[in-house]
Amino acid sequence: MEVYALKGNICYSLDKDELSIHENSYVICENGVCAGVYPDLPEDYRGIACTDYGSRLIIPGFTDLHVHAPQYAFRGLGMDLELLEWLEGHAFVEEQRYSDLNYAKRAYEIFTEDLVKSATTRACIFGTVHTEATLLLMELLEKAGFKACVGRVNMDRNCPEGLCETDALKAAQDTERWIARCQEFQQVKPILTPRFIPACSDELMRRLSELQKRYGLPVQSHLSENQAEIAWVMELCPETACYGAAYDGYGMFGKGSPAIMAHCVHSGEEEIGLMKGRKLFVAHCPESNANLSSGIAPVRTFLDEGIKVGLGSDIAAGSGLSVFRAMALAVQCSKLKWRIEDGNLKPLKFSEVFYMATRGGGEFFGNVGCFEKGYEFDALVINDTDLRSPGELTVRKRLERLMYLAEDKHIAAKYICGRKIF
Ligand code: GUN
Ligand code: FE
User: pTM value?
Assistant: First the structure.
């Protein structure tokens, strides 16, 4: 049994509105699970190993609920287009390169190394249609100590030859074989990944839905990101009441297994109604939505309706892996939406975006994203001493400014499920 304590200024979300702050306290990890936060080490834990991080901040690790690993190679490039043209001109072009395992290895090593240095401890990741490259990505993440869900992408229409699974039956069989080979991983799990409705035929969706039921897998996809995309879905599925209903028709909208839907920028009343009360997680990706001129998701409405929301970097429509940056952009974009679009949608607060980055997205993985007893022990130790200030700041203020100021260099240590990553 491995038991240890970290000492420092400990902060986590109690709920969307309230932070729990424990100065100079101990957080205890017992076999990878949090055993609580205490001002002094309780009698039962006297003598356990303790790392004293002094005045540093200790916070839960972040969940990136939506990121495309193969697109990391062209991050920061090609942002002058909207979604459909960007997919064709950039994303699909790059993703075809992952049929070459040597290229995939170089690219996924870079992605994994940078993810290790970041504030992310959990991630839901898109690979490509290539089984071998996707397994390689999973192996690298597992070796690095990550907890992640990774998807071999499915797509069988409206995409270039190099990525198109022309036979839906074969696509499902290939996916099933990939699922079987994922058994070798302990921490990295498969997630079904139909790319989005325009790239998935009815037959493919039906076959994936069978696999989902057979293996009880979660699903990740894209939803209502861009106006032209939505219009296209309505053309392709004339019977469907809204975009979300097209997934729901195949049981892929958080009814049985959990589902992550990225973006939801233009989700209307009907779609939001479908999301309610489901195991449906909105992955809010504010940087991506700005870069591809998609718009600003109605996050305030999602929160008011009790819909689960986490944050996503959406590499490479988003340019970087930082979930701190996603928090700041979520706040900034919500202010623009309130000012320009709808005065009823109050801007997001720091406590709300911190919640989304930790407990909100973390819930997808179970008890993840805080230091309450029984939560899996994912922690970041932050050294902010180089962020100079003429007077002393409260712990709460130090945490709040990190949303705008944190860089990877401020992460002094990182733990995932109790294991020290660095
Ligand atoms: N919709 C379908 N595929 C993608 C993708 O790779 N990125 C984004 N942002 N949206 C998508
Ligand atoms: Fe995406």
Answer: 0.98
